Amino acid sequence: MKEFEILKEIIEQNNSFLLTTHVNPDADALGSELAFCEILSLLNKKVRVVNHSATPYNLEFLDEKNVVEKYDSEIHKNIFSEADVLIVLDLNQANRVVKMEKGLTEFRGIKICIDHHKDPENFVNHFIGGDEYSATGEIIYDFVEQTKLVKMNKRIAEMIYAAIMTDTGSFRFERTSPKIHKIAADLLSYGVNPTLIYDKIYDQFRIGRIKLLGETLSSIELHADGRIAVMKVTREALERNNATEADVDGYVNYCLSIKNVQIGILFYELKDAIKISFRSKGNIPVNKLAHEFNGGGHSNASGAKIFNTDIETAKEKIVKSAINYL
User: In percent, how much of the chain has pLDDT > 70?
Assistant: First the structure.
């Protein structure tokens, strides 16, 4: 891939790098960041990883070297001026870095986006990847294998495996291809323990998440003759169960486990908005549904935010639109 050679040349010709990812990072975001950080470190480059959000507690094990910093406007006021190259991973819209957006858009050095989502914004000098990839971690794998800039090692392999495993839904989503299974097999050859990684990510939750999940499952409603399932999470329920926003990750997938449901929608009450997660089966393009509400994402997994409204009003409006996609 021509873009890989460009990225390799940029790495070789520069010394200082800043990496970041989207708000509320998942394992693909963090795994990709940390794998790329390891690559740069092996090349003796100066690298910092700074994210808008804190690392979710169930993903802290990925950052065993404690390199990820949570953005603070005072502490990090010089990070953008000190870096030669800014690399954003697992996002393709500048506003996904929230409070870091101004620094990102005004950055004077080389800006690179490594991502696998649809419809990227034009806010960088170089875009690496594309929506044919299952995960950003897969892009990092191909970059290592094709450029031979560094040798794959267990640390990089673990980060990439966590990224791919989670973003393919444990190898069950649409882009789970023969290539993905070959990549997974290769990563395991470096000593990656798939049982341990799965356990750390999915089986080490706090009790608050489980209690909140019970309430959220109890809120499920069916619409459109049982083909649309919706659930909701209120701020009051979140606080009462001592849960965090990261704990809500993955809840919406339970909607699709109901027989005959083709579209699942989660409404999550934020302080100033309603966050909506969309999931679908087959050829139902919920990214187009999300786009109606200024959101986006993948064909079967997307999201949006609606401001100045409440859950019930948002639900009525969105379910009405969702019916048109059945």
Answer: 100
